[in-house]
């Protein structure tokens, strides 16, 4: 497949990012909602794309405060369906439209749910190839899981793709505090605070409501909520332990990394070029442009296309053939 070339009328990184999140058209995808009860007494809601038995299953994890019905996830599920594959869009805890039961939620390095979902899919669909994809923070969680598993990764998991991944969480948080990127941070922080306020109805001791109201940045939110709720010393400890970059050397399945150098969520110097060069299982596509989950290509006024979806499907198809 040809390298990414942005549409001539949508070259700026913020234009690419906003198109990917809000304006990108996604073809119809028939989804069936399923609820799985988790071993710890909570639940996960999954949106499934049906298909023929024993065909490959693409499992997709969304980003921070997204859902399985966000445009980047739907784009990947539609592309998988176009190849005759089945699909599963995973809604992280409290991201399906209904608050979860427990005090805990999700975070960028949480991989127990990733492992549990894969094990359950394997048990339900023995013999079916499993493919994995993660977008944004979902890519970080997926890559961390793959590295943690290393050689012990189940054989059913054949390949993976991570798109617009914040490989170094501390650098990503810092990038979102600079310039126009603060617009994205403000939207994310607003959603995080709203979800936390909903959790306070069930867990009133979760956090001081006055301190939560004063939060303005992701760093402040991670310090006040994410770190203590999930057992980290502080935000810096959470970012260090959860960043996927350190787990890349141990990945042992064909894995494609797609990130733009102009991604407003991650500085270009944080891209893991050395890790890719040292691990034959990793393939990188780091084009100069593309924004965050954008990668819009195609002529105007023709129908625009998402290059990252097409490249992901090409890579995954090669891995199972």
Q: How would you sum up this structure in a few lines?
A:
This protein is α/β, with parallel strands linked by helices. It has helices at residues 13-23, 71-82, 112-124, 137-149, 169-175, 181-200, 209-214, 218-229, 235-242, 273-278, 307-320, and strands at 32-37, 43-49, 57-61, 86-91, 130-135, 157-163, 255-258, 282-285, 296-297, 305-306.
Topology:
Layout: H1 13-23, E1 32-37, E2 43-49, E3 57-61, H2 71-82, E4 86-91, H3 112-124, E5 130-135, H4 137-149, E6 157-163, H5 169-175, H6 181-200, H7 209-214, H8 218-229, H9 235-242, E7 255-258, H10 273-278, E8 282-285, E9 296-297, E10 305-306, H11 307-320
Parallel strand pairs: 3-4, 3-5, 5-6, 6-7, 7-8
Antiparallel strand pairs: 1-2, 2-4, 9-10
Helix pairs in contact: 2-11, 8-9
Strand tally:
10
Query: What Rg do the Cα atoms give?
Result: 19 Å
List the uncertain runs: none
Terminal CA distance: 17 Å
How many domains in all?
Answer: 2
Percent of residues in beta strands? 15-25%
Count of separate DSSP helical elements: 11
CATH topology of the largest domain: Rossmann fold
CATH superfamily of the largest domain: Alpha/Beta hydrolase fold, catalytic domain
Q: What topology, given as strand order, has the largest sheet? A: 1-2-4-3-5-6-7-8
- Which secondary-structure class do the elements indicate? alpha/beta
The helix fraction, in percent, is 25-40%
């Amino acid at each position: 497949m040809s390298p990414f070339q942005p549409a001539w009328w949508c070259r700026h990184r913020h234009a690419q990012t906003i198109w990917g999140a809000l304006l990108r058209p996604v073809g119809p995808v028939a989804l069936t909602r399923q609820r799985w009860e988790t071993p710890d007494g909570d639940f996960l809601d999954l949106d499934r794309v049906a298909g023929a038995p024993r065909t490959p299953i693409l499992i997709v994890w969304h980003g921070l405060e997204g859902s399985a019905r966000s445009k980047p996830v739907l784009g990947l599920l539609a592309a998988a369906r176009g190849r005759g594959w089945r699909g599963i869009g995973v809604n992280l805890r409290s991201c399906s439209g209904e608050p979860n039961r427990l005090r805990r939620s999700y975070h960028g390095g949480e991989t127990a749910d990733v492992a549990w979902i894969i094990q359950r899919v394997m048990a339900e669909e023995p013999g079916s190839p499993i493919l994995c994809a993660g977008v944004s923070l979902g890519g970080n969680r997926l890559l961390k899981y793959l590295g943690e598993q290393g050689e012990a990764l189940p054989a059913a998991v054949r390949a993976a793709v991570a798109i617009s991944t914040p490989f170094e969480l501390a650098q990503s948080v810092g990038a979102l505090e600079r310039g126009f990127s603060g617009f994205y941070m403000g939207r994310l922080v607003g959603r995080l605070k709203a979800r936390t306020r909903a959790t306070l109805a069930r867990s009133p001791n979760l956090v001081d409501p006055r301190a939560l109201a004063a939060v303005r940045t992701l760093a402040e939110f991670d310090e006040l909520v994410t770190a203590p709720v999930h057992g980290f010393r502080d935000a810096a400890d959470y970012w260090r332990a959860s960043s996927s970059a350190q787990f890349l050397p141990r990945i042992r399945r064909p894995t494609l990394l797609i990130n733009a150098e102009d991604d407003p969520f991650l500085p270009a110097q944080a891209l893991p070029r050395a890790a890719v060069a040292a691990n034959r299982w990793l393939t990188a596509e780091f084009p100069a442009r593309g924004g965050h989950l954008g990668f819009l290509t195609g002529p105007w006024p023709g129908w625009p296309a998402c290059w990252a979806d097409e490249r992901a499907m090409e890579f995954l198809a090669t891995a199972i053939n």
